[in-house]
Fold:
Amino acid sequence: MNRADKIGYGLSAALHVGVILWVVTGGQWFHPKPNEPVVISQVAVMSEKDFNALMASAPKDAPQPKPEPTAPVAPVEPPKDAAPPPKPAPEPKAKPEPKPQALPEPTPKPDAQPDVSALKAPPEPPADVAEAPAQIQPPVEEPSPTVTPDIAPAPKPKAAPRVAPTPAPEPPPEAKTSPTAQPQEAPKPEAAPDKVVEKPKEATAPPEATTEIVTEATKTVDKQESSAPLSSPRPANKPKPPAPPKPELAAKPDTPAKPEAPAKPETPAKPETPDKTETAKSQPKTQERQAAVNDALAAALGGEGSGGTGSAPVGPPITAGEKDALIVDVKQCWNVGALSSDALRTTVTVSVDMQPDGHPIISSIKLVGSSGGSGDAVKQAFEAGKRAIVRCGADGFPLPADKYGRWKTIEIDFNPEKMRMK
Amino acid sequence: MMRFVLTMLAALLIGPVAAFAQDQEPLHITITDGVIEPLPFAIAGFIPETPDAADMASQLTQVVSNDLTGTGLFREIPKSAYIQNISAFDTSVKYSDWQAINAQALIVGAVSMQGGKVAVKFRLFDVFSGQQMGDGQQLAASPASWRRLAHKVADVVYSRITGEGPYFDSRVVFVSESGPKGNRQKRLAVMDYDGANVTYLTDASTIVLAPRFSRDGTKVLYTTFETGFPRIKMLDVATASARLLPEVPGTMTFAPRFSPDGSKIVYSMEQNGNTDLWMMDVASGQTQRLTTSPSIETSPSFSPDGSRIVFESDRSGTQQLYIMPVAGGDATRISFGDGRYSTPVWSPRGDMIAFTKQNQGRFHIGVMRTDGSEERLLTSSFLDEGPTWSPNGRVIMFTRETPGAQGEAALYSVDISGRNLKKTPTPGPASDPAWSPLLP
Structure:
């Protein structure tokens, strides 16, 4: 046998052995799946008499469903175990709907086809229709055809002798006027007789003020207010689902942020009491050391000083709220009503040294700069600013005492740009 | 030794901090909102220093107070609120007493009769600054001119506090009217700015219109109908004598106004159905035509420097305001709002132009910049017209007429801010006011 015959016999033998092994062992791995068990349903047989009785008890006023010719009826899939229908479902054209005028009975209601509609695929609402506001708007009251004259017109500033950034109503006749409103304080009945009883503050009200100069022309140019809406508001979009409430926002008050209260001065740390167990010999040494530290601190700080000699507490920076409080205090005394037109075009910078209690040092008030005017205009503008500082500083400005070093000197720009006649 | 070491250590640690504290930048704030309200002041009375000056002192105090409060910029504090009683001119002022009643300015004065003249001296104090404002002043005049003394005092106080120029010591010439509306008799009259001391300059024999003061206040131009047609007359205020200006036969001349130096007169002349502006040299009577438009040009008014003229013209179809060089030439329209504009008058300060505006059935007095910007209407009524400026350019006086058969004309004034609109008292109906310059 040559080599080729050997290879042929070998392959033949290997294939035969493989076939024999597959026949012997292949049934365990490749046996056919057993048939699924047949589901048997219990069916009760009903006689024709029982069927007629059952049909007679059914409600008769239910209209028979009528296939609409224009609306294709979804094909009804027959149950698998049901007998095939004798005839295919009739096409809508096969049953022409009678003409509407020929039918005396009412038109069928849409819900008269519960079975069919249930099988209908739900129609996809067009996107634009889904966003149509008319379907989601709450019912809106139709406007009354009659004119309602009691619609309050928009508030307009009326003429008042005082023009201020914040309008103020006419004060009650019995109230004294002051730059700021103050409630009346009741006398304290429990005050000790030996103490100085403070006089109860009288109720004060700010003087009547308007926010702008109201000329006669301004007052009379206003047209008759009409109750008709001036414009038709565009319907709102579909409301979005409410966002989950944020507890931290809900907790915020509506009132504007108040200026930060001045930080309380830190109380000096109490010196630690010496340990009682310490020997008497060590006490003088400790006291001497403490005294040395105190002396060193005093020497480094320049000794005892007052009135801004370097011992003023600097404290943290002045906050925006503290600045705003100062601005509010000064501006209510800055009267530009008697200033000339030229002075109203002049900005002056006024410097003033302050006492630690918040009172200005009058003699220190000086002009440090000006722009927009010259000569008499600068002088008038400076004097108006000076009067504002002196008048409203008479009761002391609301400044944090622990930051005295930061407001020991104040420079104020009096810029009347907003107060000019326009 | 230990003390020294600790001192050095503390100095090293705290020294920079202390130095920083001492070198703190000033706290800087900016105030942009103030208040506009009358400034409260006190007059501690003009103290009579001679027995015969008591009445004069009382009247003079009242006029000064009226002048200041009449501006709307000041408010007098009632004397019942005064704490300090100033009984002599040299009494030291207790500023705290005046601060307590919120007086921001204090006037202390005295009056005496010396050699047949009234002598007035006064000081003005800034109460909250605790110092005198300016120097004290003393004025003297004949007893008949005591009101001018009071106006002078008020002018000084007004100018020192506000920075505006004075205007109380000035006069107004106007047309005094009498009789029923269909047959009004009109004559020229002149009065103090506050309505006092009315003097009639012409009789009621003919209709007179639109008087205008010369810049020095000695002459008045006005339009008269004594020839049956409007003619311009120039009147000498001191002598009340008047003369007609030269005319071209067959023409009508009206709406005259002096140039700032008083050497020229600009006016309107109707000739062959066309009205144009003309200029006349007062000394020589030589005339010069300024406009040649087929439309109506009238109501000319010089700028304070005499280089330009503002006038009204209907060359665009409706009455509008135009500015042209004093020698004539191209005119620039400056009014572009709704309605019709007329009777423009240039402010003595040169920065604004007052005008009459008619729009939607109402008349307004308004002001605008000389380029037409920042137009503001100050009044509104059935009929407002003919504005005239106070010498300091702060107040405008005009004519207001009420509607109906019983309607009357009256003089009103208003601050250029639009505040302090008030009626000027006159003996009867009055119209066409023209403010004089400040009296010398």
Summary: The two ends of chain B are 83 Å apart (CA to CA). Residues 2-22 of chain B form the longest helix (21 residues).
